[in-house]
Structures are given as structure tokens and as C-alpha cells.
Amino acid sequence: EAIAKMEQAADEFTNKNSFKKVGIQKIPRDILLLKPSHSLTRLQGQKFSLGDRVIFKNLRYSNDAPNGAI
Predict the structure, then answer these.
(1) Residue ranges of the chain with pLDDT lower than 70?
(2) 63-66 and 55-58 as β-strands: parallel, antiparallel, unpaired?
(3) Which residues in 31-70 are b (16+ Cβ under 10 Å) and which e?
(4) Contact by Cβ (8 Å): 52, 17
């Protein structure tokens, strides 16, 4: 019952809000990859909210895939 309510709320949120795809261009290759040790200092200003999509960039094949699909 509780899970059904959460799923219903998630569906309502998704249907109510529209999402736009934002692309970032002209970023030098040397700053594309983030070392795990740098994550604490370089990602502190990032803010994520419910519904944000994170895209994993596979450098080998250059395909975009949702982070949960990998």
C-alpha cells in the first residue's frame, strides 16, 4: 500500500513537470574525467533535485545511457 502511494506520487510528479535536455559543449578533454579523490572538493557546489537525470558518457563508444541502465 505504501509503495503504491509512492509510485503514484512519482507518476504524478513526472507527468506534471516537463524536462528539458541541456547539453554542454566545448569542454576540454583533460577535465572530462573526474578522479574519485577529487569528488569531495569539486562537486560540493552541485545541487540535484527530484527528477534530475544523470547521463553517463561512455567514452569508448560515445553513446549516452541513463546512469541506472549500466
Answers:
(1) 19, 27-36, 39-40, 42-43, 54-70
(2) antiparallel
(3) eeeeeeeeeeeeeeeeeeeeeeeeeeeeeeeeeeeeeeee
(4) no
Q: How far is CA 6 from the centre of its chain?
A: 21
What pLDDT is stored for residue 49 in this prediction?
76
Residue 6: the pLDDT is 92
Residue in the block written with cell 553517463: 56
The DSSP 8-state label assigned to residue 58 in this structure reads: E
d(CA 15, CA 50): 13
